[in-house]
Amino acid sequence: MKVMKFGGTSVGSADRMRDVANLIQNGDSKIVVLSAMSGTTNKLVEIAETLYQNKNENANALIDALHDNYKQVVESLYNTSDKKKQANELIDHHFDNIRAYTQDLFTIHEERAVLAQGELLSTALFQFFLEEQGITSVLLPALNFMKIDENEEPDAAYIAKNIKTELEKYPDTKLFITQGYICRNAFGEIDNLKRGGSDYSASLIGAAVGASEIQIWTDIDGMHNNDPRIVKNTRPIAELSFDEAAELAYFGAKILHPSSVLPAKQQNIPVRLLNTMKPEAHGTIIKSETAGGGIKAVAAKDGITAIKIKSGRMLLAYGFLRSVFEVFERYKTPIDMITTSEVAVSLTIDNNKFLNEIVAELKEFGQVETDLDQTIICVVGDFIAEKSGAGLRIFESLKNIPLRMISYGGSKNNITLLINTKDKVEALTKLNEGIF
């Protein structure tokens, strides 16, 4: 069995849904995981924010506008009056539920229920379309098997047990449709996977059913060797290891979220990144081992803050770094990069929510400097296999760009650099010229 995930742009219109229906009809056993139609989740977030502000009249206007969009999709997608009637009744029901939240107190529990509507709508509309086309399939409600625990982490054992129970109800069915992103929490309430969304759902489902392959279909033909939005003449990477893909995803490659690689890696299930608009393209395959070493790709992560703590107390003092890290732990703020010298430690964070509090505590250890508007450049590949020369090519390419920090040796898969964000475009362009 394969798991095929289609993102919001892949199901973003009636025509795109028809394309997806064509892509999944090859007779193989598969579970198809769908995101919300493109733009829907952003609209639902806007509705939720308006409801939090008690601007119910504005919220109703936003709800009506989104409802009208879905009515147009229904009109375009279906050919028969019966299916149009069935689909309109469905969307009316969902939007009536959303409107009901304008009549009562709006809390985080209601917000999660509102945000779930996008996936519930896209999968139901797609299932209706398959039925109209005479394609045998079953809609599996993700809320029946997808669950997170009290730490908001996926409950893998629960997921595996319950999705197996769902599948066993339909022993002769080969095609299943389900929702990405949404789940239940430890209290049985509607919730979501947050990090990685539908990609994470696909990977968790693939791991739970022992899939032969997990396919992530988007609007780009695989993971590119540089940011195609900034740099000209980038190319898709044919193969990546799980570790290389995770590094690229974490440090800025938007096509994949780093969390979504882990369940597939743990079960050694290949992940293939494909383009719905160009299904014939090879895309990128991610697996345990890949052929060849050397530099494979570059990614950039913006919104970084660098913090430098300089202290004479650090000299030969054990426990100093632990004390520093405990400050970040107390404020639940992850650290991206770290470099040290005998009298100073520099590190980076990508969340400034508690920056003032963190700096205030760090000043107990010594002098603290902060630099905002920084960008992490991550050069990924198999540098052990290359043995030598990679660093020279990287630094020669960046010889005219000031480097704030350099990190190498944390893994065999990346060399990480910190630069000012104003130098990002030039840095990515020069790296593309110098190493590919």
CATH architecture of the largest domain: 3-Layer(aba) Sandwich
Q: What does the overall shape look like?
A: globular
Structural class comes to alpha/beta
Strand runs, count: 16
* Helix-residue proportion: 25-40%
Residues in β-strands, percent: 15-25%
The CATH class of the largest domain, by name, is: Alpha Beta
Strand order of the largest sheet: 3-4-2-1-7-9-10-8
The whole-angstrom Rg is 24 Å
* CATH homologous superfamily title of the largest domain: Acetylglutamate kinase-like
**Main beta sheet, described?**
8 strands, mixed
Helical segment count: 15
Low-pLDDT runs = none
Average pLDDT value? 92
EC number: 2.7.2.4
Binding site for ATP: 5-8, 218-219, 229
Keywords: Amino-acid biosynthesis, ATP-binding, Kinase, Nucleotide-binding, Transferase
Domain Aspartokinase ACT: 377-433
What attributes does this structure have?
436 residues; alpha/beta; Carbamate kinase; VC0802-like; 2 domains; eight-stranded mixed β-sheet; 15 helices; 39% helix; 22% strand; Asp_kin_monofn; kinase
Structure description:
It is a single chain. The protein is an alpha/beta fold and 436 residues long. The protein is 39% helix and 22% strand. It folds into two domains: 2-219, Carbamate kinase; 296-435, VC0802-like (2-Layer Sandwich), CATH 3.30.2130.10. It contains 15 helices and 16 strands. Strand 1 (2-6), helix 1 (14-23) and strand 2 (30-34) form a beta-alpha-beta unit. The relative contact order is 0.10. InterPro entries: AceGlu_kinase-like_sf (IPR036393), ACT-like_dom_sf (IPR045865), ACT_Aspartokinase (IPR054352), Asp/Glu/Uridylate_kinase (IPR001048), Asp_kin_monofn (IPR005260), Asp_kinase (IPR001341), Aspartate_kinase_CS (IPR018042). Substrate binds at residues 41, 119. Belongs to the aspartokinase family. This is Aspartokinase.
